[in-house]
Amino acid sequence: LSGLDPAQPYFQGTPTEVRLDKSDADFVDIIHTDSAPTIPNLGFGIRPAIGHIDFYPNGGEEMPGCAKNPVSQIVDLDGIWEGTRDFVACNHLRSYKYYSDSIIYPDGFLGYPCASYDLFQSGNCFPCPEEGCPNMGHYADKFKDKIKKNFLKFYLNTGEARDFPLWRYKVTVTLSGKSKVKGYVNVALYGTGGNTKQYQITKGTLKPDNTYTAYIDANVNVGEVTKVKFLWNNNWINPTLPKLGAATITVEVGQNR
């Protein structure tokens, strides 16, 4: 049984006979997309973990792309009716959009086991454990024999619009050069499965021999990494023409470590 943002009003906090619960099937997976409190946030979805595995994409409360201005949302690519529904219940309806995208992307929507979304965002729950990570949505049941304890919570990020899946990488850059400068460092990944856009690894004071780490959620599964593109910029003309390089760049893939 897959619960697509099961309802919060009249169901949250009720006995298991009343609401969806993991006792309802051999395997129950839940996608939480609108679990902010109903009052005052108008969250329609249930907050607690109630399945064998519970996914909280983007933290489970506010979905990216749902804060668009009302006009652009109602005049939606999928038509006025779809756009109006999205305006009224965008976060709630993301659950079925993620699910439908998950059918097309069997390797997408990896959920990382974590105690909270903040810990996930800061990289504490990266990479996947040895038994791997489940895929949120249609292929979640591939994970059912790997469940070792009650109420597993999984976190991940998604895109703002279709196609929704993102793939998480840890990128670590050690700089080389003669003097520190102000600016930013960008990295793009190239691989057998495709290439990513540039992602900012750090900005501010850039010091040679220092190491900078960032977690990027790429909109493509690059497969085996074949090349990494490193760019830095100091945003203004500097008469001393400073030079910076990358002594080393390490890329860690969340899925297979």
From TrEMBL:
Keyword Lipid metabolism included in the entry's annotation: yes
Q: How does it sit in the membrane?
A: Peripheral membrane protein
Query: What Enzyme Commission number does this protein have?
Result: 3.1.1.26
Q: Which GO terms describe its biological process?
A: lipid catabolic process
A Gene Ontology MF term for this entry? galactolipase activity
**Does this UniProt record's set of keywords contain Secreted?**
yes
Name of a matching Pfam family: PLAT
* Top-level taxon of the source organism: Eukaryota
Report the top EC class in one word. hydrolase
Q: Which UniProt keywords apply?
A: Cell projection, Cytoplasmic vesicle, Disulfide bond, Hydrolase, Lipid degradation, Lipid metabolism, Secreted
What reaction is this protein's catalytic activity?
A: 1,2,3-trioctanoylglycerol + H2O = dioctanoylglycerol + octanoate + H(+); 1,2-dioctanoyl-3-O-beta-D-galactosyl-sn-glycerol + H2O = octanoyl-3-(beta-D-galactosyl)-sn-glycerol + octanoate + H(+); a 1,2-diacyl-3-O-[alpha-D-galactosyl-(1->6)-beta-D-galactosyl]-sn-glycerol + H2O = acyl-3-O-[alpha-D-galactosyl-(1->6)-beta-D-galactosyl]-sn-glycerol + a fatty acid + H(+); a 1,2-diacyl-3-O-(beta-D-galactosyl)-sn-glycerol + 2 H2O = 3-beta-D-galactosyl-sn-glycerol + 2 a fatty acid + 2 H(+)
* Cellular localisation: Cell projection, Neuron projection; Secreted; Zymogen granule membrane
InterPro entries (alphabetical) = AB_hydrolase_fold, Lipase, PLAT/LH2_dom, PLAT/LH2_dom_sf, TAG_lipase
Residue ranges constituting the PLAT domain according to the UniProt record = 167-257
Its cellular-component GO annotations read:
extracellular space; neuron projection; zymogen granule membrane
According to its UniProt record, which protein family does this protein belong to?
Answer: Belongs to the AB hydrolase superfamily. Lipase family.
**What is this protein's record name?**
Pancreatic lipase-related protein 2
Q: Which organism is it from?
A: Erythrocercus mccallii
Q: What is the lineage of its organism?
A: Eukaryota, Metazoa, Chordata, Craniata, Vertebrata
Gene name per UniProt: Pnlip
